[in-house]
């Protein structure tokens, strides 16, 4: 079991706030939040549920089920965000365009966003969507942490080799701005490492995120 930390305690009491179809429907833009992104069926919602020890994000065997920006409150200052899954061919083109337009607005304009977790299937890392998100994070100078999910689907040696290859690739292109780890929701592996990264972002002392408009 992961060691008990303020984040673990908050995760255990996390609650759903609301879903947003557009930027203007999002909760007030203050405090700190970390968003989870990933190609459809990469294991994003399962990872979010595992990290919060809850069933916050809806999981489905049907890729593309997450179609809204979903907000979950840890406390009054901190949130986790489940972003729409991308890349599933059977999703209508008009819906894909809608997702891309409003996701871009969220990523580029949301002042309380302090970090991005990018979930990739360890068997299919660094696809076109993943590269797009990495490029966006670099332009925005947004720290990004990669979860190579479904690590239990590979033997340990193969998973470790993939980890090393992805680490080398992102280090070459993005330097220290991007970190990478293996993760398995069914085996609950990688939880402590992921929690440490979330803690760095959500409990940072030099808080440059949005400010509560009621604090003045």
Descriptive keywords:
36% helix; 216 residues; 6 helices; 7-stranded mixed β-sheet; Rossmann fold; 7 strands
What does this structure look like?
The chain has 216 residues and is α/β, with parallel strands linked by helices. It has a single domain, classed as P-loop containing nucleotide triphosphate hydrolases (Rossmann fold, 3-Layer(aba) Sandwich). The protein has helices at 6-12, 44-52, 93-109, 128-140, 156-174, 191-202; strands at residues 15-20, 32-38, 69-73, 78-82, 113-121, 144-149, 178-182. The protein has a seven-stranded mixed β-sheet with strand order 1-3-4-2-5-6-7, sandwiched between helices. The chain is globular.
How would you summarize the topology of this molecule?
Layout: H1 6-12, E1 15-20, E2 32-38, H2 44-52, E3 69-73, E4 78-82, H3 93-109, E5 113-121, H4 128-140, E6 144-149, H5 156-174, E7 178-182, H6 191-202
């Amino acid at each position: 079991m992961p060691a008990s930390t303020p984040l673990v305690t908050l995760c255990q009491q996390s609650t759903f706030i609301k879903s947003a179809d557009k930027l203007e429907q999002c909760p007030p833009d203050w405090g700190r939040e970390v968003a989870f992104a990933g190609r459809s069926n990469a294991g994003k919602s399962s990872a979010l549920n595992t990290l919060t020890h809850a069933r916050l994000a809806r999981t489905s065997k049907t890729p593309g089920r997450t179609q809204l920006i979903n907000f979950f409150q840890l406390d009054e200052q901190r949130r986790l965000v489940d972003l729409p899954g991308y890349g599933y061919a059977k999703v209508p083109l008009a819906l894909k365009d809608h997702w891309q337009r409003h996701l871009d607005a969220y990523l580029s304009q949301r002042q309380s966003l302090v970090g991005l977790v990018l979930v990739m299937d360890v068997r299919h890392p660094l696809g076109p969507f993943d590269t797009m998100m990495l490029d966006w994070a670099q332009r925005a100078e947004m720290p990004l942490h990669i979860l190579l999910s479904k690590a239990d689907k590979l033997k340990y040696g193969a998973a470790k080799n993939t980890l090393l290859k992805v680490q080398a690739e992102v280090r070459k292109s993005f330097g220290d701005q991007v970190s990478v780890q293996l993760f398995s929701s069914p085996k609950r592996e990688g939880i402590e490492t992921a929690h440490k990264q979330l803690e760095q972002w959500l409990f940072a002392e030099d808080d440059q995120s949005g400010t509560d408009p009621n604090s003045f």
